[in-house]
Every structure is written in structure tokens, then in C-alpha cells.
Amino acid sequence: MINLNSARMAWHDAFYTPWDSQGAHVEQIGLLGCSVQKTEKSLNSRHAMHQSISARIQHAIDTLPPHLKAFGNFMYSPIATVDDKEEADDALFMAAYQAGPKMYAKKFEKAQLVAQGVLHRYRRMHQGGQSEGVDPCPSPEAFRSWLLSVLGLELDSRNWEREWEQFVEACFSACNDFDKAALVPVSLAIKEMKIAA
Questions:
Q1: What is the Rg, in whole angstroms, of the alpha carbon atoms belonging to the chain?
Q2: Residue 161 carries which DSSP code?
């Protein structure tokens, strides 16, 4: 069933098909020699309710502008695509870039990778829907090490505060803004469903 206590969880659940989907569950019950008729009726009802709630949440998500939908999908959908990730990376980079001072071309290219690293960190911290994750790179040293080992980007530690700290903060700020904006229509849909119930 869809978790309606969290917009993040609802986003995930609206795109998640549980292993015990209607056909698989009925088949398992039949293999166990149980009576299928009574169970199939309640299962059909539960499946229909899941489908109805999923459709409402997915409709709410579809009202978002493409960059927010991609960001939310990358963050929470179990069927997120590479396109979702790339669109979220690009939108995050542009938002953080526009929030700060202009950059030379050489730094611009590095900043795109730094933004990808921040999005990775933000996703790990909020994955699972309850924002209970741990920052995988809690220090500048750990982040620089991750950037080097995963993205092949080497950044000098000597000027970290002057060169990168403000940009990293702008990326996290943009992530927070995107996250809040992406979850608004989902939260409204949940509120409407709870009122109607």
C-alpha cells in the first residue's frame, strides 16, 4: 500500500509494483492450497485502491515542470532513468551557477562535476523517503576523495574555502529548493485524499 504519511514515500510507492502484485499473490495462494475466491476478492480490492492512489500521485507529479519532475524521479522513483539523473544534474548545476559569481571555462567544467557530486550526496541523505540517510562525504576531504575516485576530478585542497565551499553550499541550497518544490503537488494530493477519506 502507498505510504501517505510522507510525500517522498508516496512518490516512491506510486511507481513501485510490489512482488505480491495481484497475479503473483493469487498464484502463491493457489500453490499453498488455500481458497482463492475469498482472498482474490480482497486482493482485487486492495490492488484497485493501490492503482487509484498511484494514479492520483502520478498525476500530481505530471503537473511539475520537467526539471522538477526529473529531480523528484531521480530522488525517489524506483524506476528513475539515466535521463532523469542527467536532467537533474543539469538543472542543479545551472541553479547553483546562477546563484554565484561567474566562472572561467576551466572552473565551469569542474563545477558541473562538483554539482553531480552534491546531488549524489543529497540523494544518499534523503533516499528512502525519510531523510534519515547519512552524508557519504561529510568533510571536504571525503568529498574531494569521492570526486577523484568516482568522477576523476582532482581539486586542490589549499583553496577549498575560497574556490568551492560557496558553490557546494549553493548546490545544496538548490537541492533543497528543488526538493521542496517537487514535493508540493504530491503533498497537496495526499492532503486531498485524506480529506476525502
A1: 21
A2: I
Beta-carbon contacts of 11 under 8 Å, excluding residues fewer than 6 positions away, are: 57, 61, 72, 75, 76, 77, 129, 183, 186
Q: Is 105 exposed, middle or buried (0-12, 13-18, 19+ CB in 10 A)?
A: exposed
Beta-carbon neighbour count of residue 80 at 10 Å? 17
Grid cell for residue 9: 514515500
Q: Which of 41, 42, 75, 47 is nearest to 61 (CA)?
A: 75
Give Cα separations from 53 to 1, 31, 32 (angstroms): 9, 30, 30
d(CA 61, CA 28): 33
What separation in angstroms does the CA of 80 have from each of 69, 75, 85, 89, 148?
Answer: 10, 8, 8, 13, 25
- Tens digit of pLDDT per residue, the chain (197 long)? 677 788 898 898 888 876 555 544 444 444 454 544 545 555 566 677 778 888 999 999 999 999 999 999 999 999 999 999 999 999 999 999 999 888 888 899 999 999 999 999 999 998 755 566 889 999 999 999 999 999 999 999 988 999 999 999 999 999 999 999 999 999 999 999 888 87
- Three-state DSSP state, 136: coil
Residue 182 carries which DSSP code? H
* Residue 117 Ramachandran class (φ > 0 left, ψ -120 to 50 alpha, else beta): alpha
